[in-house]
Amino acid sequence: MKCVQCKGHMKKGSTPLHIDRKGVHLILDHVPAWVCEQCGGSLLEEKEVDAVQDLLRTIDQKSQSFAQTA
Asked: Cα dihedral sign for 51, 47, 12, 6?
């Protein structure tokens, strides 16, 4: 697989992911990803994107219920 940014070689590895959402800072240290050996760019597969989206949905639901009780 070639990197979409620099056309370098991508290999299986992991990447950190930081997301700010609705006052919550989510830090995932080791998300499985394709990582470019040349520029360090990363690409998540659909399975990992779906898992992150599930986490974000849970954060949205919890933050809504927290805001309603506060």
From this structure: negative
